[in-house]
Amino acid sequence: MYDYARLTREAQQLADRYETCRMSSIGKSLCGRTLHLLKIGTGPMPVLYAGAFHGLEWMTAAVLLHFCRRLCQAQESGLTVYQIPVRPLLREITLYCVPMVNPDGVEISLHGESAAEDYAPICAGKTHRWQANARGVDINHNFDAGWHVLHEMEQNAGITGPGPTRYGGHYPESEPETAAIAALCRKTPFAMAIAFHTQGEEIYWQYGRHTPPVSREIARQLAQASGYQVSQPEALASMGGFKDWFIDAFHRPGFTVEAGKGKNPLPFTQLPAIEGKLFPLMACGLHTAQDLDKK
After folding, report:
1. What is the per-residue pLDDT across 107-120, written as a single tens digit (0 to 9) for each?
2. pTM for the full predicted model
3. Helix (H) or strand (E) holding 80
4. 46, 90, 205, 224: least surrounded by Cβ within 10 Å?
């Protein structure tokens, strides 16, 4: 498993070891856990990669941290990552990485209701399928992108209050985790953002009338690099998420990548195979972002 303590330890080791990696925070979770941010590179073009929006999807935090390590190693040694020279890449872009957007949810799913501290009664007996934050709000339903329509859809589906998944809260950005990553995006002009989830081996790229035309081509390139399929989410997954909000708020390319296949939580034994497909996609995303200001 890959919990909050392990992420924190490995992220700090990475920042201590490599000068190009700087570690900071974008805020704290409901239970007071730090929302770690890693910045890699010195380029003027910022790109955001974020993972573990959902408790059972802690695998994405491991993948993101390991990719950051790969970038740092290649930058120090002057090597390439999937045929992409890293030193010139990191002079053009800066990767902002938030590997674990929902650390409380990860801890609840891995360690049980005691990890929710004062909110333990909300998740008692349900932790084996816990995706939400400690208050029982699904972070990826809590963004202001069709939220009111989504809220009505949730109610029609019988989702009327806090629970393991799909409850979008009382209002958009009601949760500190949602508000923290939204604030990061408002103060940093990201050229592109990718949210990493599990599972399905799919790439979502579209939301509403503000989807940039270039997004379709970028999604195609990401799919070619990874072997994933370009798809369109449906029903309760079709709005209210980070990718949807990013596109709608900034009119820039935003993507959701569903990594791996199976039933969440995916077994940690899948990590090498998932990284084998995701690392080329991640490298492709950074390489593609270099040219966005020219399009």
Report:
1. 999 999 999 999 99
2. 0.97
3. strand 80-81
4. 224
pLDDT at 236: 65
Q: How far apart are CA 104 and CA 132, in angstroms?
A: 8
Q: Which helix (H) or strand (E) element contains residue 92?
A: helix 86-92
Our measurement of the distance from residue 197's CA atom to the centroid of its chain's CA atoms, rounded to an integer in Å, reads 7
CB atoms within 10 A of CB 234: 7
Which amino acid is present at 225? A
- DSSP string covering 8-34: HHHHHHHHHH-TTEEEEEEEE-TTS-E
User: CA-CA distance, 141 to 173, in Å (whole number)?
Assistant: 9
pLDDT, tens only, 21-36: 999 999 999 999 999 9
Is the pLDDT assigned to residue 166 strictly greater than 80?
yes
Q: How far apart are CA 198 and CA 261, in angstroms?
A: 7
69, 95 in Cβ contact below 8 A?
Answer: no
Q: Are strands 45-51 and 80-81 parallel, antiparallel or unpaired?
A: unpaired
